[in-house]
Amino acid sequence: MILPTVTLSAAPAAYIAALLRSTLIENLGEDFIRTARAKGLRESVVLFKHALRNSLVPVLTVMGPLTAALLTGSFVVEYVFAIPGMGRFFITAVTDRDYPLIMGVTLVYTALLIAANLLVDLCYSYVDPRIRAH
């Protein structure tokens, strides 16, 4: 199970790390970080409470489409590594022209994507208090 996990997660993990690094470096030069340091806050508090929290918004934005890429990538990974799962089940249904099964699996994957995007939207208000539903 290690190789399929690494296959699915290596590229998204690198992308998220690079995005977080670039937004964190960008936020460390902002005025509110300079103000927090001038107030005498510890560097760890400035980094985690102020800089990292504001840097997570672009990362969360990417997480919705990234979830879609991981779910659709799981089709190929399950098929290549012969893992019994919904992706392999879907590919078998397509080759056998089992249309009700294709629609059912598509509906389940759609529900998963909607739930992932909803979770990302809910996390926005937790990470950035300025983003609130009125």
What is the element layout, followed by pairings?
Blueprint: H1 2-27, H2 31-38, H3 43-80, H4 86-95, H5 99-127
Structure commentary:
It contains five helices and no strands. Helix 3 packs parallel to helix 4 and helix 3 runs antiparallel to helix 5. It is mainly α and 134 residues long.
What are the main properties of this structure?
134 residues; mainly alpha; 83% helix; elongated
Spell out the helices and strands N to C: HHHHH
Radius of gyration: 20 Å
How many beta-strand elements?
Answer: 0
User: Describe the biggest sheet?
Assistant: none
Query: Proportion of β residues?
Result: under 5%
Helix content: over 70%
Query: Which structural class should the secondary elements be placed in?
Result: mainly alpha
Q: Average the pLDDT over all residues and give the rounded result.
A: 88
Question: How would you briefly describe this protein structure?
Answer:
By secondary structure, the chain is mainly α. 83% of the residues lie in helices and 0% in strands.
